[in-house]
Write a structure and sequence with these properties.
Immunoglobulin-like
């Protein structure tokens, strides 16, 4: 059995191009207040998300999530969901991203108090969503069962992933920590026909990173050499991002650096720099509108 540890402090083409859809330049801003329930890192991530929504709204408009006049067909929808807002476009490329902090003085119950706000100003390229997008289901787990859903992990806690799609397609999973992006799926010892992504069957539930026999999905791959993931950190709290990359078309993986072996039974997965990873995402998404991804923020506590 091969065991894979993600030490978060140390780590953690052949394409079917549909058409090159016109891109537009747009700007957005958003402010988020830091309070005891939200850290500065979380506030920056939230401000960025809201600034992107604002930029897309400026160009294409949006709908509140409660509206029901959404065109749905075969499990796909023409609107992309970000938070509680359905925007009629998507963010393709970031050109500029700036953050500022604003310390405000307010009158509190016991006199003068202070609030810290973080503002994000972002500029980039967006495109209107004209082709339906796959709304797949992706859930991080700390046990190989869907009921174990969580986005917060303790030191050396195992990681699993539940995934289900309404359409056939191809899936790859990356974890991004600081300046590095680590590829978690396909598994490290999969055959060459799984070099770029693993095939996904419509409506079939998958639980990845489990060696249990019931989670055997690929007949030619020995389930006992699945990469089992354990999340660790040297910090009190560590934030990482999970990227679920899915397309109904085949796509080519980015150029990856080799695995790093720390002990006989442990290793860190193949990786590339965060900058090169984001460049790869931008280039494919610019040319192939069927290529899409979802980001899930994870928290690891020491």
């Amino acid at each position: 059995m091969k065991t894979l540890i993600l030490s978060i402090s140390l780590l953690l083409a052949v394409m079917h191009f549909t058409y090159c859809q016109k891109l537009f330049r747009s700007k957005g801003t958003a402010k988020v207040k830091i309070d005891p329930q939200i850290s500065k890192t979380e506030a920056r991530a939230k401000a960025r998300e809201l600034a992107i929504i604002n930029a897309i709204e400026e160009k294409f408009g949006s709908y509140v999530e409660q509206e029901t006049n959404i065109d749905i067909e075969n499990g796909q929808t023409k609107f992309k969901v970000i938070g509680n807002t359905r925007v009629k476009g998507e963010w393709v490329k970031t050109l500029r991203e700036d953050y500022t902090e604003d310390l405000r003085s307010i009158e509190g119950e016991y006199g003068k108090e202070y609030e810290l706000w973080i503002e994000c100003e972002i500029e980039g390229k967006v495109r209107e969503v004209q082709q339906v997008k796959v709304e797949f289901e992706a859930i991080p787990l700390n046990c190989p069962n869907k009921i174990c859903r969580t986005t917060e992990f303790q030191q050396e806690e195992p990681f699993y992933l539940y995934f289900r799609s309404p359409v056939n397609g191809h899936l790859s999973v990356f974890m991004v920590e600081e300046d590095e992006a680590y590829r978690l799926l396909p598994y490290q010892q999969m055959a060459e026909n799984y070099t770029d992504a693993v095939p996904i069957k419509e409506d079939q539930p998958y639980i990845f990173f489990s060696t249990e026999e019931e989670h055997q999905y690929y007949k030619e791959f020995n389930q006992q050499i699945v990469d089992e993931l354990v999340l660790t950190t040297e910090k009190e709290i560590e934030y990482v991002q999970l990227y679920l990359i899915f397309s109904s078309n085949e796509f080519q993986k980015p150029l990856l650096d080799p695995m790093i072996y720390s002990r006989e039974e442990f290793h860190t997965p193949k990786s590339l720099s965060k900058g090169n990873f984001q460049k790869w995402l931008r280039e494919i998404r610019t040319l192939d509108i069927s290529f899409n991804y979802q980001i899930i923020n994870l928290k690891i506590r020491k």
